[in-house]
Design brief:
Blueprint lengths: L1 H5 L5 H28 L1 E3 L13 E4 L7 H10 L3 E2 L5 E2 L7 E9 L5 E7 L6 E8 L2 E8 L15 E7 L2 E10 L5 E2 L1 E4 L1 H36 L2 H21 L1 H5 L5 H26 L2 H4 L1 H23 L3 H28 L5 H23 L6 H4 L1 H35 L10 H18 L3 E8 L2 H8 L1 H18 L5 E6 L2 E7 L3 H16 L2 E2 L4 E2 L2 E7 L7 H17 L5 E2 L1
Parallel strand pairs: 1-5, 18-19
Antiparallel strand pairs: 2-3, 2-5, 4-11, 5-10, 6-9, 6-12, 7-8, 7-10, 13-15, 13-18, 14-15, 16-17
C-alpha cells in the first residue's frame, strides 16, 4: 500500500499517515457497524416474519450464574457477541446463554406481541423486559415446570409480551443440557397462530401416516402371526413416542403434570426407537442365520446401553443420559446402514427395499440431528426432516414386508408343488393323487356319476434296468409319462404311482369308455421304442369303475389293481376290466 501512495509522489511521512488513517478507519468501521447491528432495534409495529436471532447479542455464562445486573453491566462494556443468523443454535452441551436485543414501540400506548421459543425441550427459558434500566416484566418458562403453569396452551414456550412505548430491552436466559436450538419468534398473535396452524396440519399428516401404517401392520401381524409385521408395528410406535416427546405434543397432551417424564422422555424414547429398529432389522433380515457374526453383538450392545441409561437416570445424570442417547442414535444409524448394505450385497430377500428405507430414514435423522446440533442452519423443514424421512422409510419398509411375504408365499406354493410332483417324470405323485381323488369320489357319491380308475404296470421293466442300466430305465419312464400326458383328456388326472406303475383317474367315465381309453393308452405305449437299443415297451393295464359297492377311493384302486394282475396273468400287454 505504501508503494501505491509513493507512486503518487507523496513523502514517507504522508504515506505513513494515510496508511495508519485507513487502518484506524477500517477498525472503527467494523466496530461501528457491529455496534449498529447490535443496537439495531426490533420495531414491534413492523415485526420480521422470520426468527429474530440476528437481532440478539449473546453472552455465554462461563462460571456461576449471572444476574440481570451483570448482563446490564456487560452491555455497557459492549462485550457481547453479535449473532448473524435468524435461527440461534448453540449445539449440544452448550453453556447457558444470555440474549439481548432492543425493542422499539413508536406508539404512545403499549403493544401486546407473542414471544415463542420454537423448541420444546429447554429446561430454563427466562425472559426479562427492561425499560430505563429497570425490570418491569419477568417470566420463567421451561420444561422443568408443570405444563399447567404455562400462560398459553402451546407445545412450545410462548407468552404474550406487553411492550411499553418507546425504547426497551428484551433480555433472555436459556439453559439446558439438551441441544440449544433456539428459533425465537416475536410476532403478532394472529400471525403466529396461522403459522402454527400450518404446522399442525404437517404433524397431522405425519402422525396419521405413521399410525395408519402401524395399525395396518399390527393387524397383519396378529392375523398372519407374522413377527416381521409385529416388530414393524413396535418400531413405528417407538417413533411416535419419540416424535411426541421432542415435538412437545407429549407434554401438552399425555404427561402434562409429570416433569420427570418430560425430563427423561427424549433420551429414553431415542434409545427405545433405536432398539426397536435394531430388533426389527434383526428379525426381518434373519440375522441369526444370514449374518450371525453381526447378530451376536446386538444383544450385548443393547443390554450395555440400557444398563447405562438406567444407571444415569438413577444417579440423576441428565447430561450423561443425553450424551448416551445421541451416541445410541449414532450407533443405531451406523448399524442400520451397515446391515442394509451387507444384506443387499448378500442378496437377502427384500434387502433392496430395506436399503432404500434405511437411506430415507437415516437421511432424515441425520438432517434433523445436524440441525439440532447446529451443524447446518436451522429451518423448519430441516428440523422436521426426520418425520418426512420416517414416512418414506415406513412406506419402503411396508413394501419390503409385502415383498418378503409374497416371496414366502411363492416359495411355499413352489414347495407344495414340488412335494406333489415326481421329480423324474414331472407327473403328479401318489400324494397329489390322494389329495384330489377323494373330491371326485365324493362327487360320484353325491351326483351318482361314474368314476373310473386305470392302473398301468410296465412289462419286464426290471429286466430293462438290469440289462441296459438305470439310465435307460429312467428314459423309458419319461417316455411313458409323456405319452400318458398326451393321451389323457383335459379332465383326466394322471400320476406316477411308484416304481414302474402309473395311475389315471377318469371323472364321469363309465367302464366301457374307460376300457376304450385304456386300449388307446396301450397302443400309444406299444409305439414307443428306445432307438439306440431297439427296446420295445408294453404295459399291463387294469380298469375299474365305481358302483354301489364302492365305499371309498382305496376300494376302487384296489379293484383296478386286481384287474392289473389279471392282465399280467393273461400274458401281459393287455387290458383287463
Amino acid at each position: 500500500m505504501k508503494m501505491l501512495f509513493s507512486s503518487l509522489y507523496l513523502d514517507n511521512n504522508a504515506v505513513n499517515f494515510l496508511v495508519n488513517s485507513l487502518v484506524v478507519f477500517f477498525v472503527f468501521s467494523l466496530t461501528f457497524f457491529s455496534f449498529v447491528s447490535f443496537s439495531a432495534s426490533i420495531d414491534v409495529q413492523h415485526l420480521p416474519s422470520n426468527a429474530i436471532g440476528e437481532y440478539f447479542v449473546t453472552y455465554p455464562e462461563e462460571g456461576e450464574r449471572l444476574a440481570i445486573t451483570d448482563i446490564q453491566a456487560l452491555l455497557l462494556k459492549q462485550k457481547g457477541q453479535y449473532y448473524a443468523e435468524p435461527h440461534l443454535n448453540f449445539g449440544l452441551w452448550s453453556k447457558p446463554i444470555w440474549l439481548v436485543t432492543n425493542l422499539k414501540n413508536s406508539k404512545k400506548t403499549p403493544l401486546v406481541k407473542r414471544l415463542t421459543l420454537g423448541t420444546s425441550w429447554i429446561d430454563e427459558f427466562d425472559i426479562y423486559l427492561v425499560k430505563n434500566g429497570e425490570v418491569f416484566e419477568q417470566y420463567q418458562l421451561g420444561d422443568q415446570y408443570p405444563y399447567h403453569q404455562r400462560e398459553i396452551d402451546s407445545r412450545y414456550f410462548s407468552l404474550d409480551l406487553t411492550v411499553p412505548d418507546g425504547e426497551s430491552q428484551l433480555i433472555i436466559r436459556v439453559a439446558s443440557p439438551d441441544p440449544l436450538a433456539l428459533p425465537i419468534y416475536l410476532q403478532n398473535i394472529s400471525t403466529q397462530q396461522k403459522v402454527f396452524s400450518k404446522e399442525a396440519y404437517r404433524y397431522g399428516f405425519v402422525y396419521g401416516s405413521i399410525i395408519a401404517l402401524m395399525l395396518y401392520n399390527l393387524l397383519l401381524g396378529l392375523s398372519l402371526k407374522s413377527k416381521d409385521n409385529l416388530y414393524y408395528s413396535i418400531y413405528m410406535l417407538s417413533f411416535l413416542l419419540l416424535n411426541f416427546s421432542y415435538s412437545g405434543h407429549g407434554y401438552q397432551l399425555l404427561w402434562s403434570e409429570s416433569t420427570e417424564i418430560q425430563k427423561w422422555g427424549n433420551p429414553v424414547f431415542m434409545l427405545l426407537f433405536s432398539f426397536a429398529g435394531l430388533s426389527f432389522a434383526r428379525n426381518f433380515l434373519n440375522l441369526a442365520s444370514t449374518l450371525p457374526h453381526i447378530n451376536k453383538w446386538l444383544t450385548p450392545i443393547i443390554f450395555s446401553v440400557t444398563s447405562a441409561l438406567v444407571l444415569g437416570i438413577a444417579l440423576n445424570k441428565h447430561a450423561f443420559v443425553i450424551f448416551l442417547a445421541f451416541m445410541g442414535m449414532f450407533i443405531f444409524t451406523l448399524t442400520m446402514m451397515t446391515l442394509s448394505i451387507v444384506a443387499y450385497l448378500h442378496k437377502i430377500k427384500a434387502a433392496e427395499y430395506f436399503l432404500l428405507a434405511t437411506l430415507m430414514g437415516v437421511g432424515g435423522a441425520l438432517t434433523t440431528c445436524s440441525t439440532v446440533w447446529g451443524i447446518i442452519e436451522y429451518s423448519p423443514y430441516a428440523y422436521m426432516a426426520i418425520d418426512f424421512g420416517m414416512i418414506a422409510e415406513a412406506t419402503f419398509l411396508s413394501l419390503a414386508l409385502a415383498n418378503k411375504f409374497n416371496q414366502a408365499e411363492e416359495d411355499k406354493l413352489m414347495a407344495q408343488k414340488m412335494a406333489n410332483l415326481d421329480p423324474l417324470t414331472d407327473l403328479c405323485n401318489r400324494r397329489a393323487f390322494y389329495d384330489i381323488a377323494p373330491q371326485y369320489f365324493k362327487q360320484y357319491r353325491q351326483q351318482q356319476v361314474p368314476l373310473s380308475i386305470i392302473m398301468f404296470d410296465l412289462d419286464n421293466f426290471k429286466s430293462i434296468n438290469d440289462i441296459y442300466g438305470h439310465k435307460v430305465g429312467d428314459e423309458v419312464l419319461k417316455l411313458v409319462s409323456d405319452v400318458l400326458n398326451k393321451q389323457a383328456r383335459k379332465e383326466d388326472f394322471v400320476a406316477r404311482w411308484g416304481g414302474e406303475e402309473f395311475i389315471a383317474l377318469l371323472p364321469k367315465t363309465d367302464l366301457q369308455t374307460a376300457t376304450s381309453i385304456a386300449e388307446r393308452y396301450k397302443l400309444a405305449i406299444n409305439s414307443l421304442v428306445i432307438t439306440e437299443d431297439n427296446i420295445g415297451i408294453s404295459a399291463s393295464i387294469g380298469v375299474a369303475t365305481s358302483d354301489a359297492q364302492s365305499e371309498n377311493v382305496d376300494q376302487l384302486i384296489s379293484l383296478a389293481d386286481d384287474k392289473l394282475y389279471q392282465a399280467k396273468a393273461q400274458g401281459k400287454n393287455c387290458v383287463a376290466f
